[in-house]
Amino acid sequence: MTGLNLEDFGSRVERPDAGIRRDAHDRWEQLVRPPLALGKLAELADWLAATQGQVPVRPVSRPKVVLFAADHGVAELKVSANPPGGAADLVRNVLEGGSATNVLARLYGAQIRVVDVALDTDAEGLPAEVTAHRVRRGSGRLDVEDALSVEEAEQAFRVGVAIADEEADSGTDLILLGDVSVGGTTAAGVLIAALCGTDASVVTGRGSGIDDIAWMRKCAAIRDGLRRARPVLGDQLELLAAVGGADLAALTGFLLQAAVRKLPVILDGVVTAAAALVAQRVAFRAPDWWLAGQVSGEPGQAKALDRLSIEPLLDQGITAGEGTGALLALPLLQGAAAMAAELPERF
Known about the structure:
It is built from 15 helices and five strands. It is of the alpha/beta class. The protein folds into two domains: 7-58 and 338-342; 63-329, 3-Layer(aba) Sandwich (Rossmann fold). It has a five-stranded parallel β-sheet, sandwiched between helices.
C-alpha cells in the first residue's frame, strides 16, 4: 500500500479557461482579415492564451526541455538497436551538447533539464543535479517480472510531481517533454496496448531503428508484458510498477502536476504519449493542457494520441526522440504567440 491517492488529481485538474479562449479567438477579427487566414497558428495562440488565462497571450519566453532518463530491463532481450544499459551514454551526449536536442534547443532558445530516475550506471559518473532524483538502477524485465515495486513507482511518480512544481515555480512557461531511454518504447507499447485494448503487433514499432528479427522479439516481449498488465489495469500505479518503469511513472506524475499547475506541455514521442494515456485515466481533463509535437512513426504513438484526441502538429519523419519532436514544434508556438501579442488591431 502507498500513501498516494491518484483520485485527488481528478478533482484538482481544471480545464484551460474556455472564456479566455473565446476572447482570444474573437480578437483575431481585429488583427487579421479574414480571421482564419493564419490557420493553425491562430488555434495555437488561442490554446496558449487559455492556458495562460489572459488575452492577449504572452510570448513564449522561457521554454524548457525536460527529459526523464532510464534503462529498461526488457532491453536484455535485444529489442533495441542500443545496448542494454546504454541510456547513460545517450544522456552524456546530451549533457556534453552533442545531440540533435542540443542543436535545436540552442537554435530556439530552450534550456534542457535531464532527470535520471533509473539509469543503469554508477551515479558518480554523472552530475549530481542529474542523478539527485534516481529511484533505482535500471528496471525489472517487464515480460517476466515487475519493472518496479509499487513503492518505487510511487517514488518515481512523486519525482515527476516535484519536477513539475520546480519548473512552474521557476517561471518556465512551456515544457517540451521527452525521454532518454533504452527499452522505453517497448514498455510504452505494453501500456498503450493494455489501455487501448489492442494486440501487441498493433503498437510495436521500430523504436531506435531495429530490424525485422528484433521487431519480432519486441512484439513478443510486449505480448508477454500485456499478460502481466491486464490484471492490474484498474490501478494506474500498479500498472506502471508492473510494466512501465521509473521514467514512465515520473512522466505520468509530471504531466498530471503540470496540468494542476496550469503549465502547458508539448509531448515528444511514443513514451510521453504512453505516460499521457496513463495520466488521462487518472484525470480526464488533463489532456487539454497538452499538445503533441510531431508524428514519431511509432504505431503506438498514433494509437495513444487518437485515444487522447490530440493531433500532432508536424509530420517530418523524425525518429530521434530525446525531445526533438517537441522542440520542432516550438517555433510554431513561439510564432503564434508573438503574432497574437504583437500584431496591431487594424479594424
